[in-house]
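Could someone model adenosine-5'-triphosphate with this protein?
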Amino acid sequence: MTTAEPVLTVRGLSARAGGQQVVEHVDLDVAATGVTALLGRNGVGKTSTIKAIMGLVERTGEVTLAGKRIDGLEPHRVARLGVGYVPEDREVFSALTVTENLRIAERPGVEHRYDLVYEVFPELKERGGQAAGTLSGGQQQMVALGRVLINDNAVLLIDEPTKGLSPRLVQEVGRVLATAAEVAPVLLVEQNLKVVRDLARDVVVLTGGRSVHHGDAREFLEDDRLTQRFLGVHGGEGESA
Ligand SMILES: Nc1ncnc2c1ncn2[C@@H]1O[C@H](COP(=O)(O)OP(=O)(O)OP(=O)(O)O)[C@@H](O)[C@H]1O
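Reply:
Sure, complex below.
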């Protein structure tokens, strides 16, 4: 566990989607450095929690970024304050080229780190003129991650970046996430427990829209009783929860 103040704190966050309560009074802290994993079975509200932090769904509760309340702000204001968001379904602009997808993500008033992005993803430079819609799923994920790495963010919210990728690409994305975590703290929704084990220092676990466990990632993953109860798997299994 880190001793520094968390970069992002969430207190009593509740959210509705499709007329239902999908997040109920969630408390969580995102450590000032490294990766905090947000875990839980399918449908427990991980994506909705991240969307609620961004202001993308109707919500109540307190969200604080580096000591400043952001829960009253619209999503573009939250993003402008340095909350980088990589949604679950990647959401690249299919008709735009790779370079255009990166340019459109540039936030005004901050340095744009193309050097870092092209160092981490040389392929994005090579394929700069290609329409993003013609890329593979793995390459589109690289574009989505590249778009948040371009800006100097205070925190990154990354939702299931390895979903549907081959084992080789999962490894590749894991390497990129490790680099991302060196430049900004990350809240990571991830079903692949090997990726969690390799990257995360802290975990927050949700069940039924509520946060039910916070703690050290390694201790959680090594506790079969906890992983069985909250994820339905042995922590040692390493693959999907
Ligand atoms: N727009 C919506 N309309 C209706 N129900 C929704 C909507 N968005 C989310 N839900 C429901 O809210 C619950 C939480 O969904 P959410 O996607 O946040 O969970 P999750 O933990 O991220 O799941 P997964 O691991 O499957 O991505 C689910 O029961 C889901 O069906």
